[in-house]
Task: inverse folding
């Protein structure tokens, strides 16, 4: 597959970056402005990090107007590391337990990455048989009334509009929307997960797909069910008090009542098989021995910043980011997602951006500058790993570990978050660097 270079991004403002994206990818879905209200790049990330209040987050994070950090888009692209956010949060509180809720949420992202590193592309398939069986066959496509925000449910339609207009949703709203789609409307979870991944500025397959599986009950002990009482409490009645469906909507009732309406009560013929996910080994690429010459830093979606571990390890090396057509086809990122990404890249000096096959583009860049090795930050992404294996057939590929979030030596079971957290909680709640981990 041929590749070509895009114009230099460094220093361009949003309007100019939108023009670059539109010229390079004219079929990108989304409106003409690409303005989701969030600004990409390290400068914006550091400014947002300075505003977080870990104690308030712990008290109010479940409320739609709670003191959430909003840091996930920058974490997703490696502009902020989990360890950096954790260390900053612990430095802000007098007692470590005041930051525990925030650190545990960072732990979920580290956990999802570790599962992704172990399972690869299979996270797009049911990891376990559904914990509860639906009464009817699932829908393979998103319903038209959902996509047009015309379901007649004020809460659902508001969540859809916010997702489309901003590329971001509060985590509770994501869970409610996913649960309603899967369990009430009968949408196959993969269809909903793909829809989210298209729009969410912070969307990455690990957190996105595995969270949808948790809601669906294909990677959890039971399905997550959305009910009106929960919505009314955590939205402070914003949708329910004036809802025309109050008292007769699809999510009225407690968990058992909803489960009785939504699921087949007939027991499964066979017991649900147990799943055991062990920790993934550290990622390395079989490649020729390293040389003492120059290197090329390959930046990826998980490390789209000059704060990338690979960039930090080789501060004077040229940087290359490659827009992979396979990624664009698989996720269909909206213009908002792409502009946020390009804003992250535009802060990086000495960066080239190519469009095409990453294996060919990275190899060609290294040969053009006389580099005998390629440095890439650790990532669970199977697409990047496969391309790195290809590059490694010609030159040395050095995988640079990410900043440490926890001591992973005791992790032996990733089957459930609770098992993972019991093993790493103490180290995760300790500021500073722990032992290097394969994905965190």
Result:
């Amino acid at each position: 597959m041929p590749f070509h270079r895009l114009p230099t991004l460094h220093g361009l403002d949003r309007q100019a970056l939108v023009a670059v994206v539109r010229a390079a990818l004219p079929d990108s879905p989304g409106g003409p402005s690409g303005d989701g209200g969030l600004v990409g790049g390290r400068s914006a990330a550091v400014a947002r990090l300075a505003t977080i209040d870990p104690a308030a987050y712990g008290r109010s994070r479940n409320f739609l107007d709670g003191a959430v950090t909003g840091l996930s888009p920058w974490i997703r692209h490696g502009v902020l590391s989990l360890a950096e956010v954790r260390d900053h949060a612990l430095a802000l509180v007098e007692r470590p337990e005041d930051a525990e809720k925030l650190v545990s949420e960072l732990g979920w992202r580290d956990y999802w990455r570790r599962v992704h590193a172990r399972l690869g592309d299979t996270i797009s398939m049911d990891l376990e048989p559904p914990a509860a069986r639906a009464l009817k066959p699932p829908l393979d496509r998103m319903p038209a009334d959902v996509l047009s925000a015309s379901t007649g449910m004020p809460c659902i339609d508001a969540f859809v509009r916010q997702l489309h207009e901003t590329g971001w949703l509060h985590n509770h709203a994501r869970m409610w929307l996913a649960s309603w789609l899967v369990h009430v409307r009968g949408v196959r979870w993969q269809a909903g997960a793909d829809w989210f991944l298209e729009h969410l500025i912070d969307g990455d397959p690990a957190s996105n797909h595995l969270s949808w599986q948790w809601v669906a009950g294909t990677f959890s002990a039971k399905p997550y069910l959305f009910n009106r009482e929960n919505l009314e409490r955590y939205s402070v009645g914003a949708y329910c008090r004036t809802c025309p469906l109050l008292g007769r909507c699809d999510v009225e009732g407690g968990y058992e009542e909803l489960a009785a309406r939504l699921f087949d009560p007939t027991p499964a013929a066979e017991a649900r098989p147990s799943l055991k996910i062990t920790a993934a080994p550290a990622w390395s690429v079989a490649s020729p021995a390293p040389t003492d010459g120059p290197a090329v830093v390959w930046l990826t979606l998980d490390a789209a910043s000059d704060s990338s571990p690979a960039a930090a390890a080789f501060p004077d090396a040229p940087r290359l980011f490659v827009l992979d057509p396979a990624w664009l086809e698989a996720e269909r990122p909206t213009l908002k997602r792409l502009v946020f990404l390009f804003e992250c890249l535009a802060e990086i000096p000495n960066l080239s951006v190519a469009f095409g096959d990453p294996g060919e583009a990275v190899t060609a860049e290294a040969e053009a500058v006389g580099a005998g090795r390629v440095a890439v930050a650790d990532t669970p992404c199977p697409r990047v790993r496969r391309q790195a294996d290809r590059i490694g057939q010609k030159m040395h590929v050095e995988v640079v570990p990410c900043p440490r979030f926890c001591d992973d030596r005791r992790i032996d079971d990733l089957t459930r978050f609770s098992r993972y957290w019991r093993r790493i909680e103490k180290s995760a709640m300790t500021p500073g660097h722990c032992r290097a981990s394969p994905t965190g």
In short: The two ends are 32 Å apart (CA to CA). Strands lie at 4-5, 295-299, 319-323, 351-355, 373-377, 396-400.
